[in-house]
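Review the following:
>
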Amino acid sequence: MIMGRRVVWVMCGAWISLAGCNKGGDNSAKTGGDGCASANFKNEAAKFCLTLPAGFKAGPVEKDQQAFDGPNAERFVISWAAPGPGEVGPESVESLAAAGKIVEKGDISGGKGKFAVYDEKNNPTRYIEAIAKGTTMNIRCTTNGPLVGVSGGVAACKSLYAQ
């Protein structure tokens, strides 16, 4: 009987560690109903959350951005700024992607944002631009890399939710 409890405890502990929830500081798992319920990373200060793919770790917040590093040197960056003159918003995503061939586009952040995945025209490089409009800030997620080497960053950017 005691052995059974230990197995359940170990299994629960393993599941929690696999979920990748970040604890402490500005980063914690969200359990509310605001679009972040399934996210395993949240930045309270910038008011965004996303689902980090397996193997990715959040770097420190540096002024108005935060980098996330993953396997095989893959990286994506989240930046934020208050809307204003010169600041890009969700409506700018397709024009930002116009430099290449758009391979996928759509809505994110409960309809408050847009993303575009595109390939550079003369270079085997894939990019993503994702921008979500939050209550006080626009949140932008970007990554680029080899055509097959940015799947984690693309998935993370598509999961971006601005509060």
